[in-house]
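Duplicate of #3305? Posting structure anyway:
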């Protein structure tokens, strides 16, 4: 038996597709918040680093500027 998985089978699995959608939503919202809060360092880091939604989540929960 051949247990190797092809790249096509990997990228079409449901959990991978869900991960991509979540990453896109989190990254988009975090980039929008960075831009509105004038935080270019965070903007560049979130734009460049692909972390499956972890870096945008950290930013949104802990490092964004609080509104009054």
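Output from current build:
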């Amino acid at each position: 038996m051949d247990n190797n998985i092809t790249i096509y089978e990997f990228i079409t699995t449901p959990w991978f597709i869900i991960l991509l959608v979540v990453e896109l939503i989190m990254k988009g919202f975090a980039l929008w918040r960075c831009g509105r809060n004038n935080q270019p360092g965070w903007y560049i880091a979130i734009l460049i680093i692909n972390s499956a939604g972890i870096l945008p989540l950290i930013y949104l929960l802990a490092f964004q500027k609080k509104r009054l």
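Confirmed duplicate; merging threads. The helical segments are 7-11, 14-36, 40-48, 54-63. The chain has a mean pLDDT of 84.
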